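Support request from a user on the community tier.

User writes: "When I paste my structure tokens into the form, the page sometimes reloads and wipes my input. The last time it worked, I copied everything first. Here is what I submitted, just in case something in the input itself triggers the reload:"
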């Protein structure tokens, strides 16, 4: 297994009368930075002329004032922050992708993973298509472009393409005259839109990005829906709606999304606090203080404290100038970052029985180091509670868990895991409670495949989702040998 990553973030602007699309997209991507820290990109549309820039790195580092000025003053734009779940981490795989074809041009940003990417790409290559990246985003762009050759409009081409692409995808697509937002039939990945006071429409992965640019939230894009923004206003195509069970990735609420976002009608903070309350009911313990691991463990810790009656305290100070260890590139880097990222407040934990709340345990390495920090700070007991069920299965819809090999829960019991990480006890949230975080017992549903192995959108073929990446690597090796 490679590293485990989180989602990407997409953002779109339509109809900025003041030509502020580049600036709005910059702020929107800044708000979505937590969803991707490998690469970012912006494509601006100025009356049909596309200007683009993308590179590896953080939004603030890539989009300097000089770069933003060179993007111009167009009224529409699409942007993307990336964590690659397929494709190498290099500039060629950064998004958005820009396609020029006989019917015009298109810019596309994608969050998610296809489960039939291999089959589609093989078919396209046999027909003469040449790929420049190893991401399945390029596959989507080819399928839409191919349909556009015979379709009367780009939205019609997107509608036809949706019959062919399978899996998880939230898309923002820009043509010279339109902006289009698309969500897959299951609604695996979030997508919403809003409007600013001057009438500019904004599309974003999370509502926090709407807030960042002063846009009022209007609604979530429905699973299977195509929403078109053009000079005629806003319209919708719902041919693919109600074709599959609603299956939002539950980890959006547990970890990925910002706590101030509202996804499919539920505040992320509220869902996480509810997870903590469920944990207190499922795994009670006698303790003196409840603390959370910053940042996504804090809301659940508040919920655990309120439900259990055990006081909540701030137990760690987080270095704000270092990225998440969960998504750090490489094990050595991840371990180094733990030491400088978190520092316990000794007066809070010294001589105390501590309930430690975190959002997940993947390999156990980070958890063991955090427990050790608390021991060294004087905690007498450490009872770890996790606001997610144990990871047991690969994810094929956008979270980069492509093997069971390094998932600690696949090889060790709860008691064994507690011993490995050095905790006095360990309790995970149940899958049943995870399904109730936002919507209660009925209504909308979740994808919990990484916990229970039930895949609502199917699984890829046995060829493996990184097959093309391996092929390119092999070809490079052969070329080097030939030289």
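"...and here is what came back when it finally went through:"
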């Amino acid at each position: 297994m490679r590293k485990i990553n989180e989602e990407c973030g997409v953002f779109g602007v339509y109809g900025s009368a003041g030509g502020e699309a580049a600036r709005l997209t910059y702020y929107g991507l800044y708000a979505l930075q937590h969803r991707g820290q490998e690469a970012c990109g912006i494509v601006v549309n100025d009356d049909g002329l596309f200007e683009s820039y993308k590179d590896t790195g953080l939004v603030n580092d890539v989009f300097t004032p000089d770069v933003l000025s060179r993007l111009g003053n167009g009224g529409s734009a699409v942007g993307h922050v990336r964590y690659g779940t397929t494709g190498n981490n290099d500039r060629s795989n950064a998004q958005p992708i820009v396609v020029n074809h006989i019917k015009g041009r298109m810019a596309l940003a994608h969050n998610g993973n296809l489960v039939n990417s291999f089959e589609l790409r093989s078919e396209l290559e046999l027909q003469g298509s040449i790929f420049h990246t190893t991401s399945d985003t390029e596959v989507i762009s080819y399928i839409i472009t191919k349909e556009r050759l015979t379709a009367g409009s780009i939205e019609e081409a997107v509608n036809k393409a949706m019959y062919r692409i399978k899996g998880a995808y939230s898309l923002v697509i820009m043509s010279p005259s339109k902006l289009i937002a698309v969500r897959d039939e299951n609604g695996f990945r979030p997508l919403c839109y809003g409007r600013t006071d001057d009438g500019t429409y904004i599309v974003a992965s999370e509502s926090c990005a709407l807030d960042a640019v002063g846009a009022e939230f209007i609604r979530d894009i429905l699973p299977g829906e195509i929403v078109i923004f053009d000079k005629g206003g806003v319209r919708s195509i719902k041919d693919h709606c109600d074709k599959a069970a609603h299956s939002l990735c539950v980890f959006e609420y547990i970890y990925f999304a910002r706590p101030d976002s509202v996804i499919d009608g539920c505040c992320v903070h509220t869902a996480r606090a509810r997870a903590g309350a469920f944990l207190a009911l499922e795994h009670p313990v006698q303790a003196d203080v409840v603390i959370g691991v910053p940042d996504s463990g804090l809301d659940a810790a508040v919920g655990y404290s309120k439900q259990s009656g055990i006081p909540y305290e701030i137990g760690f100070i987080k270095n704000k100038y270092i990225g998440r260890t969960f998504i750090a590139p490489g094990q050595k880097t991840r371990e180094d970052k733990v030491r400088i990222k978190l520092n316990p407040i000794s007066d809070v934990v010294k001589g105390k029985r501590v309930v430690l709340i975190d959002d997940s345990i993947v390999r156990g390495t980070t958890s063991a180091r955090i427990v050790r920090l608390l021991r060294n700070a004087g905690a007498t007991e450490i009872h770890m509670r996790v606001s997610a069920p144990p990871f047991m299965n690969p994810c094929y819809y956008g979270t980069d868990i492509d093997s069971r090999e390094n998932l600690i829960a696949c090889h060790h019991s709860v008691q064994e895991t507690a011993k490995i990480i050095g905790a006095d006890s360990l309790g995970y949230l149940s899958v049943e409670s995870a399904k109730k975080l936002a919507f209660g017992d009925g209504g909308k549903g979740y994808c919990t495949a990484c916990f229970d192995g039930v895949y609502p959108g199917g699984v890829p073929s046995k060829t493996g989702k990184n097959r093309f990446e391996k092929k390119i690597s092999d070809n490079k090796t052969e070329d080097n040998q030939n030289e």
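Agent notes: The reload is a front-end session timeout and is unrelated to the input. The longest helix spans residues 467-482. Residues 458 and 475 are 30 Å apart (CA to CA). Escalated to web team.
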